[in-house]
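Materials and Methods. Structural model of Ionic transporter y4hA. The 369-residue sequence of Ionic transporter y4hA from Nocardioides euryhalodurans was retrieved and submitted for structure prediction as follows.
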Amino acid sequence: MSSDVVRGRFSWTLLVPLAALVGLVATWGRKPGDLVLALVALLLIGAVLAAVHHAEVVAHRVGEPFGSLVLAVAVTIIEVALIVTLMVTATGQETAGLARDTVFAAVMISVNGIVGLSLVVGALRHQFAVFNPEGAGSALATVVTLATLTLVVPTFTTSASGPEFTSGQLTFAAVASLALYGMFVFTQTVRHRDFFLPVEAGGSLPDEDDDGHADPPSGPQALTSLALLLGALVAVVGLAKVESPAIESAVAAVGFPHAVVGVVIALLVLLPESIAAVRAAARQHVQISLNLAYGSAMASIGLTIPTIAVASIWLDGPLELGLGTTEMVLLLLSVIVAVLTVVPGRAKPLAGGIHLAILASFIYFTIAP
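The predicted structure was written out as tokens:
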């Protein structure tokens, strides 16, 4: 990669996150007008694109699967902070199902939306989307276990009224979630790292020393990109929150349920991972796409539930975690289809289309319950 190209890319990917952070500081806690909201939307899109670029720089430096893990965990930590902030600022019934709705939306978007798009793009460009079934299967099994334990079981427990955990049950779920997530990260990054690497090398990257390998960025470049990645992600989540009143007004204007707001915000927050996953699939790195998708779903549950468990010590009001019947049916359908997709180790465009159909069903039945 030439120095001119590096400087060109660095220029806009430096300025956009900084501008987005400035915009976030200027608009946070205020009620901006339509013109400012339009500018905020442009900054939000720019921050998403910058986050994808810096995530790829960091991933190139640390290698897979660490690269996809960095992006998934970074987005989720900021998302969790946003959830806690909303729960602190809102009161009563407004916050009762906030964590559940946000986590479930993130799971459905990741497991069906990101996976579906990646499979379609990968299979259309390379005939089949090829990945490692052992790695993808391990990730999927962890996601399914976490989702069932934290989102399904509360609907059927009897110690507390409604779809809620008691304090003891919530503590158990939080500890189990952290333990499962920690075990998976150890498996992914240490014990069986090779299961989560791309099956085939796709795409072409610059190789200035002709050693047959892409040249990674230097340490200072990677650290700079890591800092800018975190800044861009903070801007993405924060600006999505700034835009949320406008989204709420638009949703109310067309008569949609309030739960649609959570889905829209989740879509915005997961945009960096979605774009990064699709770009990886286009380069025939579908395993990286699945690492991002399942890693995002896993981190959303494995980090949110423990954080909410701690926050519930000082937060008042009920905490509803259990899903309704329709949501559980869609989750079960997602699990069955995901298992059938993962087991062969390769997928046709049809598999991706089925996942996207499930995501469309989730969004439709959220709009028209």
